[in-house]
Amino acid sequence: MSETARNLYEMGNEVKPRTYQNKVIEGKDDFITKELICEQYCLTHLEDPAPLFVFTKSKDWAEAEFQERIHPGQINPGEAWKLRPEIWEEFLVDGKYFDYTYSERMNEVVRYNGIVMTKLQAVIGLLKDDNDTRKAILNIYGEDGQVECSDAENLDGKMRIPCSMYYDFLIRENARGEKQLNICYHQRSSDFVTHFGNDVYLAWKLMEYVAREVGIKPGYLYHTIDSLHSYKKDWVKLKTSIQTELR
Predict the structure, then answer these.
(1) 3-state secondary structure of 27
(2) What are the beta bridge partners of residue 116?
(3) DSSP E strands: which ranges in 16-163?
(4) What are the backbone angles phi and psi of residue 71, rounded to the nearest 5°?
(5) Residue numbers of the chain with a pLDDT score lower than 50
(6) What stretch of H or E contains 65?
């Protein structure tokens, strides 16, 4: 977290996006953006997640959000958002629901071996049936059944589209010859101060959950972010010592 914050502040290129989710921010100085393109890292262990929440103080939200994501009921809007109303309330449509939720995307109804189940359940089933598969992909970007259109039809910014593209699960041997479940997480965009720590934690939790369901050891998180960014209103936090924030 410390290194990434410093890299963003010192080496991020400044850009001026026109939209933030489905909100117009053109001409608003607070939303001038520092950006790093195609940031990648591999997380091999997560003993203490506290530093991930140093800016957001939102571990309670992340825990509640994760439970809604793995619930097979395609929840929208759910209850987790109420733990961060300052972030999510403005994105409610007519105060009733969101343009999409991860719960909806992850639990879309599909068929696997002729049996109706959720997309997450199908991925777990495939990993059990074929440990060497390269097809265990849980896509988030794609079709949205609620509004009956694809994300590609919402590029004009009038509706929100997911920042996460997909989670790819690979069972492979580690250096000790042990089979483990790795997760490759690809995002088009991540707001470092507001969301990055949550994104990391939720991906790690998903890897652990799927590994437990498959009956295999959890492995590593490989994370790729096409646009890792921070808005001008948050730049002061990029210069703040993480240890100071933790205290």
Answers:
(1) coil
(2) 111
(3) 19-20, 23-24, 33-43, 109-112, 115-118, 137-139, 143-144, 149-150
(4) -70, 135
(5) 144, 146-148
(6) helix 59-70
pLDDT tens track for 191-243? 999 999 999 999 999 999 999 999 999 999 999 999 999 999 999 999 876 65
- Model-level pTM greater than 0.85? yes
- Token duo for residue 78: 């759910």
Beta strands in the chain (DSSP E): 13-15, 19-20, 23-24, 33-43, 109-112, 115-118, 137-139, 143-144, 149-150, 164-173, 179-187, 190-191, 217-231
Helices (H) and strands (E) in the chain, counts: 8, 13
What residue type is assigned to position 79 of the chain? E
Tokens of 218: 């959890």
Is the Cβ–Cβ distance between 183 and 222 less than 8 Å? yes
Q: How many CB atoms lie within 10 A of CB 35?
A: 19
